Amino acid sequence: MARYRSAVCKLCRRESTKLFLKGDRCYTEKCAVEKRAYAPGERAQGRRGKLSEYGTQLREKQKLRRTYGVLERQFQAYFDRATRTQGITGEVLLQLLERRLDNVVFRMGFAPSRPAARQLVRHGHIRVNGRKVNIPSYRLRPGEVITVKEKSHQLPVVQEAMKGAEMRPKVSYLDVDRNKLEGTFLSIPGRADIPTPVQEQLIVELYSK
User: Fold this and answer.
1) Which of 17, 24, 33, 81 has an alpha carbon within 20 to 30 A of 8's alpha carbon?
2) What predicted TM-score, i.e. pTM, was given to this entire model?
3) What is residue 163's predicted lDDT score, i.e. its pLDDT?
């Protein structure tokens, strides 16, 4: 599967906000957005003017897509599913992204970032209800239990994540026991329970054109 291989800090600077792609570094003064809060590229500083309506909507879509690490076609599929699901389209879109296994592994604090969580899942270190699931986009259902494989507890990436877990925001739809490296997906989150700073209605407007 294709994936982004360049410097991820450029993505945060392009969106002028923290996408938390570098783990705990994003919570420190070393964060690239803290140092250079302008888009990457030669003469980018001070060059950016006021965005058009379309440009603003596009930036919100790119911000959300890059936050969760999904490609354009995959994001389109999530949006199409959201439009077919009962409820507010923008909120349903966020719920579908939050229910991804790699996102939940990150939210539970078992990985320092979503890219690291995706790698843990793909390499078979994560169990759902006791069975191996190596598909990062696996959509969790309420009541499912997520654990880190016992032999993987001492992995450096897991240990690093546990040290910085307290810095990350907690969400109410997860119940986590970090001593056991185990957690339960309690319920599908409402919009107020999702700490993703994005204006999802702008994305709906973009795709509705």
Assistant:
1) 81
2) 0.79
3) 85
